[in-house]
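Case study 2.
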Amino acid sequence: MNETTRRPIEYRNEINPVWCTGCGDYGVLKSFTRAFAKLNLKNEEIAIISGIGCSSRLPGYCATYGFNTVHGRALPIATGLKVARPDLTVVACGGDGDAFAIGGGHISHAVRRNVNITYFVMDNSIYGLTKGQASPTTTREFKEKEGLLGVEEIPVNPVLTVLSAGAGFVARTHAGDMNHMAEMLMEAIRYPGFSFVHCYSVCVTYQGKPFQEFLEQKMHPLPVENSPSDLDKAFRVAREDPWAMGIICKR
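Prediction:
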């Protein structure tokens, strides 16, 4: 078989997503199926593990193995599964609240264990499923504008957090570019260890079109002089250029 023999639709089941119309998670779902097809993976060789939240519904729409864990526990379940079944391609996924609030303590341990799994986090900087509360990545400006609690709190920097834990592969993408998402997911799956993909997304219900337009204006490719193997440059991007898309670290 060559890489063109599988079709993305083969990785979708008959269940229709219940996301709001225009949600970025639709694009992420398509990027997952595109990546699996390009990698020519068999359906029974894939396991998608998620936590709780809008984006964590994703395994339910794929014709693969899938498991919704309890809130914030995708990483330990995914790690245990990969150890027990090293033949599977294991992808953990979830949102910014699931990953960096209740699930935040698991990230450093998943990184240090360096089991060959991929963690794909869809970051819309809001708790969409539970009616629009501020999440760990919500900016102070948005909280102040919307009257949300926690204006004084410094938002979490997902890429910097995972880099600081020692991850060997870190990439950034956004839900408005399905080809780029699929490419980043493919590279992350191919990486022989723990890999992390940070994906900006939009909650159309609580952020609306202005935030989507803001992301589209801000997102840009990583500068060509950036080398993923240069850790100093990776940290500089993480701190100073939160809108740069591409493979930030690969070592």
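Strands lie at 46-50, 65-68, 89-95, 118-123, 169-174, 195-200, 220-221, 244-250.
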